[in-house]
Each structure stands twice: as C-alpha cells, then as structure tokens.
Amino acid sequence: xxxxxxxxxxxxxLDSLPEKCREVFRLFLSDKLKQKEIATLLEISQKTVxxxxxxxxxxxxxxxxxxx
Length: 68
Hints:
This protein is an all-alpha fold. It has helices spanning 3-15, 19-29, 35-42, 46-67.
C-alpha cells in the first residue's frame, strides 16, 4: 500500500469519529498537545480527554479493520 493511499484511509477513519472525539484526537496527534493542554483548551476534564483518545484509537482501528 502506498503512503498516499494509507494517508487517505486514515483521514477517512478520522472523519468517521464523533466531532468532539475527532477534535481531541487531532489536537493530540497532529498538534502534539499534551492531554492537560487539550483539557484546558477545550474546557473539559483530563479524564474526558483520555477517554476521547482511547475511543479514537479503538474506532479508527475498527473502521480500518472493517473496510480494509
């Protein structure tokens, strides 16, 4: 699988996440913010940030496994 193809599949998987989960996940992975920084920025608890990140990983894995 080519890098561009893989990147597109991951983008589609990210787009399938619920809005808040997607926002947290992108801040964590793309912007390299720490969980505490994300919690402060979004005015949510750090535990909620952790839950969104864990949910994001699980849903992306399931999405990719189901479709590819």
